[in-house]
Write a structure and sequence with these properties.
Elements: H1 6-17, E1 20-24, H2 28-33, H3 40-54, E2 60-63, H4 66-69, H5 72-89, E3 92-99, H6 103-114, E4 124-127, H7 137-146, E5 149-155, H8 162-165, H9 172-184, E6 193-197, E7 219-220, H10 231-237, E8 245-249, H11 251-254, H12 260-278
Parallel strand pairs: 1-2, 1-8, 2-3, 3-4, 4-5, 5-6, 6-7, 7-8
Bound molecules: orotidine-5'-monophosphate (OMP).
Keywords: Decarboxylase, Lyase, Pyrimidine biosynthesis
Catalytic activity: orotidine 5'-phosphate + H(+) = UMP + CO2
Protein name: Orotidine 5'-phosphate decarboxylase
Length: about 280
Amino acid sequence: MTTTHFGARLAEAMGRHGPLCVGLDPHPRLLADWGLPDDADGLRVFSGRVLDAAAGRCAAVKPQSAFFERHGAEGVRVLEEVLAGCRERGLLSVLDVKRGDIGSTMLAYAEAYLADGAPLAADSVTLSPYLGYGALRPAVDLARATGRGVWVLGLTSNPEGAQVQQVGSPSVAARVVDQVAADNAGLAPFGDVGLVVGATLPATPSVLGLDLSAAGAPVLAPGVGAQGASGADVARVFAGLTDRVLVPVGRGILAAGPRPDDLVRAVTTWSGQLRRDLAPG
Ligand SMILES: O=C(O)c1cc(=O)[nH]c(=O)n1[C@@H]1O[C@H](COP(=O)(O)O)[C@@H](O)[C@H]1O
């Protein structure tokens, strides 16, 4: 068990390394571009190079579970190695699995990703609240008990998200944000329950009815790079909150491979750019 809560560990890592989180999404197309086979061995080489380029140069790495699961047990074994590799390199892990289920099943998911000693234990995990935020309780509680964190989907970066998330007044997403705020109360500089809010939003979260400033939550802001958003968009969408925004960049960095030097350059360039774009004032 870690004694320091996740929000504090994240704030420390972002203070040291800036807002970049490298997205580890081994798309089959990228494996081919890197001259690697679309199998577990290819995943292993790809992931090792990405972790080596990220180590010491960014706060966190976000492995996307789907690209490992598509290779079955051998792919999941590589994902376990990736999570161990993050720990060895001092990188915080954001395991992107977007889980969300009825409470009793949610406990099993929580134990899979957030329990000490679990083969797939990560520092944090993405969750979907769209079976009801309360159903996530076992994961929120276990994360807190073990010094880990969760990232709850608020407004996602895909255009279809609004069909569910922005319905009602207050919207479904605004209600999720209010419940996240209650769970983060009293934790500084921010809590263990983060929010996922896309950098591709057409307007600021407050214009869309979300009070992020009161949520006490770190924000994961996907959509930068391949999905079209820039660091300047992150600064515009999250004006006044940029101190708590973690920015995942996947294909925007991974396309620079396969040469290690080129990957390091892409990580360094994105890191510097995001630091400048998100600097206060
Ligand atoms: O939870 C996420 O990470 C996520 C939420 C969201 O709203 N949009 C989104 O793109 N993502 C994930 O972020 C990553 C984006 O990858 P790139 O577009 O290559 O940077 C993918 O792994 C997506 O599954």
